Every structure is written in structure tokens, then in C-alpha cells.
Amino acid sequence: MKRYEKLYEQKIPRASLSKYKRERIVYRFKDVHMDLNAMHLLWQQGGGGTDTAEIWAAISRMDKKDKETWNREFAAQGARLEAMARESLKGGHLVSAREAFFRASSYYGTAGNREKQVDCFRAAGDMVEPPLEPVEIPFAGKHLPGYFVKAAADDQQRKTLILIGGGDTILEDLYFIAGPAGKNRGYNVFVVEMPGQGATVLEGMFMRPDTEVPMKAIVDYLLSRPDVDPEKLAAMGLSWGGYMVPRAACFEKRLKAIVANSIILDGNIWMTEISPFGIIAKLEGTILFSLLKLFLGSSMMPRLESIKKKWGAKDMKHFVELNKEFYLDPRMIECPTLLLDGATENLYSRGVEILQEVALKAIAHPNKKRVTGPKELGADGHCQIVNTNFMNRVTFDWLDEVFEKEAVKAASSSVKSENLIKKSI
User: pLDDT category, 22, cuts 50, 70, 90?
Assistant: First the structure.
């Protein structure tokens, strides 16, 4: 694959972190990355993964200058919800138990207790009807973990959405983003991790530019199931998934529609020109790096270590070099495509908007659309974060229309073929 030359004809401006700090919606913390943690919890609320009152109660007990209190308070919140779940389960109150187990899972997850997160999530998943199916797809001698959310208990072929997260998402959290929303609309939803995401890092897998390779394994698995309609298979990528899914779609033609929230045409542009990682790479190891840490906030440092681990990078310079191999040509996307982004993200980063504009013009399929989340509804941030109701309404309504239109087209083509056969006879 060659780079799409028109993307590089204009200068991509760097995002303005200072402008973002001034004009963003502040949920609780002045520290951008701490506030992002709060936003991630709110993001899961629409699918039953968290509760606003429980989030704010935990945050209200924190020392804002001591980031370790985040883990302590949310671990305690997870323990409270788990105790409630077990009490409800003991009394035979399965709905209450399921809801509390799900929220306990999310709070344990944000506190970094992975074992408790998975245990509580699976306890809740067993009480969903039909139960959530843990899946491990063999890949390169290892496994891609996922959960299959069945729309109904039978094996009737149904519309199916593959949901891929970003660099910071965790598999169980992804379920709350679109799992219940898709199921309520008659979709199977398969939440799955690609190499370099979540649990795959523990197996020694790193982010890779050729996402079409693991996507092939995912699609192979789904099309082996009797309950997946091969003509109504879509994929959505969130954040870094906005690179993974469109890149995969350039080669994996069995995907009948994709959603990029938001699309990343070039990983190097995204990481070094739009994001501050290019500057960080230049200053890492110098005396100026300590000043940069003060500007970015202390919560940025653990994130940098996490990023290096997921990309398999020795340091930030190596990380920048690795990202030069992450790119795609939007002209190779030949299926209906929905582009999602947020108004505030475009406000502080003209570069993000340029990527959406270039992609929208270049994508080969005529059925392409861009929807920008409005600030008035709180859907204006990165990936329209926080307002999953807005994101899911736009996504699933669009997919419904795409699949209905394609079904009509297929039926019409079939009738024409039959008429030609009759005429030839």
C-alpha cells in the first residue's frame, strides 16, 4: 500500500493543548488526563457500566493532588458494588445482582484491579439473556480475546457489529460502549481486542500497522457462526481503532460497512504532528523534559509508559519511528463508511478535521457520511466521548439504512438475473 499523496500536500497543524484546556468541558479535574479518566467512566454509563452518583461520590473523597487516591477510592467503590451484587444474588434478585456486578467491574478496572474486573464482569455476563460468550480467537500462536453479544438466543442470521477500541480501552469496558445498544436494536455485537490492546500485551503482542491480518482472523471466526449474516457485517473503530478498522477495510472486503470514530489516515501525523508525542520524543532525556511534564500534568507519565509497552518501543523516539509504518490509502475503502468526530476536538485540533475532510473526499464508496458531535449535547469530545447515546443513535440508524439499502439492491439484482435467464430460455 502506498501513502495517499494528497494528505501530505498541506501542513497539518499541531493541536493546541492550551486552547483545549481553556475551552473544554471540565468534568472534575484541571489535569486533562485525570479528567479523561472521569470521562471514560461516564462513557460507560449508557450501557450500564457505571453510575454518575457513584462516580462523583468516589471522586469527592479524593485528594486531587494525590493521583494514587483514584485507585484507592475506586477499588473501594468496586468492593461496595461487589458486596451489593452478592447480597442481591443470595436473595435471588438476579437483575440487581447483574447490574451491580457490571458496575463493580468498571470501578475495579479503572482502579487497575484486572482480576476483579474480569471476575465481576463474567459473573454479570452469565446473568445476561442470552449469556455473554467469552471468545479466544487463535492468532499467531496466541489469542485475540473477545465477547460475543448475541441479539437473541436462537441461531437466526443477524446483523453484526465488530467493535474495536483504542490505545487505552479495555475489553470489558468496550461492552458498555455499544454492546447493550446494539443488542437492543437487533444486532449481534462482537467486542474484541487487536494486537497491542488490553490483554494481548500480556501475551507479548504489540500494535501492528497491518491490521487487516488480525481482522481476517476475526472475520473468519464470525463467519463460521450460524448466527452472523455475512451480508450484514460491519466494524467500528474508536480512537486508535479509527486507524485499525479503516486500514483493515482496505483489504478485508468481507466487511460490508465501517464506522471510524474518528479516522486516522496516518499514525505518524496523528502521533507526532497533531499529538504532543513528537515534542516529547525530542525532549525525553533532556533537562527540558521536567518542564514539559509540569505543563502536561503528572498523570501523563504513566500513559507514556503504557504507550511504549503497547507499541513495543524502547523509548519515545523509537515510538515515533514505529508509527511511520502506520498509514492507509482511503481510496481503497470500497464499502459504506461513516466518519464520526467531535466539535471540541476539531476546535483545538484543525489537524483532526483535515483527516476527516481528506478521507471523506477520497473514500471510494459513494455511500459515505460525516457526523460531528455537538457540544450542546456533550458529544463534542474525542470519539464523542461521554454521550454514547448520541454516538449509538447515529451509528446504528446509519447501519440500519445501509443494510436495508443493500438488501433492496441485492433483491433487485436477483430479479434482473432471473428475468435474463427466462429471456435466454
Answer: low
